[in-house]
Design brief:
- It is built from seven helices and twelve strands.
- The protein is of the alpha+beta class and 267 residues long.
- Strands 1, 2, 3, 4 and 8 form a five-stranded antiparallel beta sheet that branches.
- Strand 2 and strand 3 form a beta hairpin.
- The longest helix has 17 residues, at 229-245.
Length: 267
C-alpha cells in the first residue's frame, strides 16, 4: 500500500464518543522504511481532552493463545489515561510489530490479521457504592428568627394591639408577608414605625401571628391544639382571619386544617 497508507475499521462508540482503529501495513513513518507495521486507535468524533484507557491486541490465530497485547489497563488512573485533545487524535504504536516477523507468524492466517481493541473512557467522577454517610440536619433558620424575635434585640418596628405593645423586625415581616411589605416599605407605608396601631385584632392572636410569621412551629402554633377544644377552635378562627388579612398562606392552611378536624356530619 505504501508508507503512510492505512486501513481503517468501522467506527464504534464507547463512553459517548466514536472511535476507529487505523492499521498501516507499511508503517506510518518514512524513517522506519516500511520495516514495521503501525497500529493506532483514533478519536473519530468531536471532543476535547477526552481521557481514555486503551488495549490493542494482535490475536494469535493458531489456537495457541499467544496474543500480542499492548494495554493501558491495570495502570493507575493518574498515569494511565491518555488525553485526546481533538477529533483525529491518536494513540498507538508506529513500531507495533516488525513486518518480516509478522508475515511468517501465527498472527497471519490466509493473508488476514485479527486485531481486538478495548477502550475505556475515564469520566471526571467515580461511580460506585457509597462508603460514607453524613447526616445533614434540617434547616433551622426559622428557629433562629424566632429566637431573635423573642429576645427583642435589633427590633425596628413596634405595634400597638389592644393596648399591648409588640416589637418586631421589619425585614423579616416584609419577607413573609406582602401586606407587611407594603405597610413597611411600600409607597403608602406607615410613617410612624415607632408604634403602628393594629385594630380589630386581639393581642394574643397578633402575638401568635408574629411568631408564626417567622415560619417556625412554636407554642403559639400549638395553641391551635390546646387542651380546651373550644379554645383551640376559637384561636384557629381568629388566626385564620389574621392570616388572611396579612396574606400568610401557610398559616391559613394550618388554621383551615385545624378547623376541618372539628367538622362533623351528623345523620
Amino acid at each position: 500500500m505504501g508508507i503512510g497508507k492505512y486501513i481503517a475499521s468501522d467506527t464504534f462508540f464507547v463512553g459517548g464518543y466514536a472511535w476507529a482503529v487505523y492499521f498501516y501495513p507499511d508503517g506510518k513513518s518514512v524513517e522506519d522504511n516500511a520495516a514495521y507495521v503501525s497500529l493506532f486507535i483514533a478519536l473519530a468524533s468531536e471532543g476535547t481532552d477526552v481521557r481514555a484507557l486503551f488495549e490493542l491486541t494482535l490475536l494469535d490465530q493458531s489456537g495457541k493463545a499467544r496474543h500480542k497485547v499492548h494495554t493501558h489497563f491495570g495502570r493507575t488512573l493518574e498515569s494511565g489515561p491518555y488525553a485526546l485533545k481533538y477529533r483525529g487524535s491518536m494513540w498507538g504504536y508506529k513500531r507495533f510489530f516488525k513486518r518480516t516477523l509478522l508475515e511468517t507468524s501465527d498472527y497471519l492466517k490466509d493473508d488476514c490479521l485479527s486485531i481486538r481493541c478495548c477502550v475505556g473512557v475515564v469520566k471526571s467522577y467515580t461511580e460506585g457504592p457509597k462508603t460514607y454517610t453524613i447526616a445533614v440536619p434540617p434547616c433551622d433558620i426559622g428557629k433562629h428568627f424566632g429566637k431573635l424575635l423573642e429576645s427583642g434585640r435589633c427590633t425596628d418596628v413596634n405595634f400597638d394591639v389592644d393596648g399591648e405593645k409588640f416589637s418586631a423586625h421589619k425585614l423579616v415581616l416584609a419577607a413573609r408577608s406582602p401586606v407587611f411589605r407594603a405597610q413597611l416599605f411600600g409607597p403608602l407605608k406607615d410613617q410612624n414605625t415607632q408604634c403602628i396601631n393594629v385594630e380589630d385584632m386581639e393581642a394574643p392572636v397578633f402575638k401568635a401571628l408574629l411568631h408564626l410569621s417567622t415560619g417556625i412551629p412554636t407554642r403559639h402554633e400549638k395553641a391551635c391544639g390546646s387542651k380546651s377544644k373550644r379554645a383551640s377552635t376559637l384561636m384557629a378562627q381568629h388566626l385564620l382571619a389574621a392570616a388572611d388579612r396579612y396574606a400568610l398562606e401557610r398559616l391559613k392552611l394550618l388554621c383551615e386544617a385545624k378547623l376541618c378536624e372539628d367538622v362533623y356530619i351528623h345523620s
